[in-house]
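Need tokens for this chain, all 227 residues.
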Amino acid sequence: MKRSNINRILKDSEAFLEKHQVFLPPFGKWEPNDWKNLDASYQEIKDNMLGWDVTDFGSGDFDKYGLVAFTFRNGNYTAPKKYPKPYCEKVLLLNEGQELPYHFHRLKEEDTINRGGGNLQITVWQSTAEEMLDKETPVQLVKDGHKLTLDPGTVVTLHPGESLTTTTGIYHKWQVEPGTGEVLVWEVSSTNDDNIDNRFLRDIPRVPDIEEDEEPYRLLFGDYSKL
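Here are the structure tokens for all 227 residues:
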């Protein structure tokens, strides 16, 4: 992805969050220079991948395959004594016409909550022992306290205010119901680590390569290793 495109996406995302009165912690609005002289007391932000995330999953087409996320808080699988939080909280933005590709989590269990905007559609399948789509086994989920047993490949629609609990090993794909507009999604989950936890059905990168055609507007969590 070009840094100029990421900068534009972040500015649009901040405007959408402001419209829905979602307020970020201070580090969510830091400029690149604000990161340069941080002392060790801020290390949790870097170690636990807090902050902004923009990805096109290596597709080169953010408008078709893309996602924006901001992580407020998170634990750490590799340093649980240093960072004992067993939970993670994120806000995620999905545009109409975009898709979050099929994937499941090996470690993370999550609640996906539609907090406003359009309708979020989640297609669900069990995974096989070979980590492919299980086209035979029903999918068991909980939607707002209601236990569901669904046919493989069922599309679950979340209207604003509705949520879905997804456990490990369940493939899911996100998209927006056509004609309903951008969706504000909240995620409450166990500890998240995008370096080890995601199994995508197609072999695609979680964090994109960035072409530095202009200076960053905000840093992404993938930029922290360069500091």
